Amino acid sequence: MNYNKIGNKYTLDKKLGEGTFSITYLARDEAGHKVAVKHIQKRKVKEEDWENEINILRILQKNPHPNIVTCLDIFEDESDVFIIEELLPHGDLLTFVTRNSPLREADIRRLFWTIISAVEHLHSLGIVHRDIKLENLLLDSRGRVKLIDFNLSSLYSDKTFLSRFCGSLPYCPPEMVLRTPYVGPEVDVWALGVLFYLFLFARYPFPVDDERDINCLRKFMTNLLNAQFTLPTYHPYTSEAINLLRSFFKTDRTKRPSLEVIKSHPWFRIMREEEKRRNPYHQQQNIKNSQQTTTNTTTTNSTTNEILSKMENLSVTTHRTTTTNTTTTENEKTTLRVCEETETSERYTVWKPFLKNGIFV
């Protein structure tokens, strides 16, 4: 394969970054549009790993999600795999959190909701990510968050167990560190809890200062296996946010909440209401319910009138009670935005174009 012209469609430009298993390049398609090219050398990766990643990406190509990176093409020869993805030019959430901490609770709520929705989509397809972290959440040109990097992901089933230890240590749950079997989704739930803690306090709940130092690892393991983490004495977040945070860190994986339960938490009430307003399905259901109510009312009134008429013919005295049904039309509601409030400080300066247009939508 010509490395300068991938699939005779994409021309490599420059290297963007290098990971443990791959190198990412900037490239352009035939129309000049920028894309990202992930290059995997087969000899450096287990065959089952790159085959698994390709399989998962093909599933996601058929089942896209607005907060998961879009895979455009996949090319493969005897020695290499080239994955063509949309370009996400505005950095990762590690940079965002570092620059803008402390984040406002409204921003965190919207950000976290979109990430949970993306992971929920994966789980609905039988995919567990296993490497959710700030570095694997990037921002596109519109400021939307996109989950990337599926080289450690796996298909899962409720009838079988996974056992591979993988991912970044500060995000790993107890069962993975202990090498005990797990189904899959509960591992992602724990990692989401670590993300949530990072959004709130810009530090890890279970830090590992030095992975090569036995004392640091011993301290990490003690805190992790007992789910011991500290909260700042003073912070600007509500008790509902802290209550949700605590629910993630259950050392017994079977007691961790599902993503459905997490999204039903009172802290997400605003997001659920907003989603209902945006979701055509809910609007259609409301219309159907309204029509059904009208039909039932008409039928009931017709039946009532017939009965009353018969009673009058039988010289039975009746007293009719008239009930007036009124429909209140609400004013058009505006979609909630992250940055409706006036920002007076210099925080969010770099990201204001995104925030202005409703980041993380």
Task: Summarize the biggest pleated sheet.
Answer: 6 strands, antiparallel
Task: Give the overall shape, derived from the CA principal axes.
Answer: globular
DSSP summary: helix tally: 11
SS elements, strand count: 10
Keywords, separated by commas or semicolons:
Phosphorylase Kinase, domain 1; 2 domains; 11 helices; 6-stranded antiparallel beta sheet; 361 residues; alpha+beta; 13% strand; two-stranded antiparallel ribbon; Transferase(Phosphotransferase), domain 1
Protein model, in words:
By secondary structure, this protein is an alpha+beta fold. It folds into two domains: 5-86, Phosphorylase Kinase, domain 1 (2-Layer Sandwich), CATH 3.30.200.20; 93-269, Transferase(Phosphotransferase), domain 1 (Orthogonal Bundle). It has eleven helices and ten strands. Helix 3 (105-124) packs antiparallel against helix 5 and helix 5 packs antiparallel against helix 7. The model is unreliable at 310-361 (pLDDT under 50).
Short description:
The chain is of the alpha+beta class. Helix content is 39%, strand content 13%.
Task: Give the SSE layout.
Blueprint: E1 5-6, E2 10-18, E3 23-28, E4 34-41, H1 47-62, E5 71-76, E6 80-86, H2 93-100, H3 105-124, E7 127-128, E8 137-139, E9 145-147, E10 154-155, H4 174-177, H5 185-201, H6 214-225, H7 239-248, H8 259-263, H9 269-278, H10 280-313, H11 352-356
Antiparallel strand pairs: 1-2, 2-3, 3-4, 4-6, 5-6, 7-10, 8-9
Helix pairs in contact: 3-5, 5-7
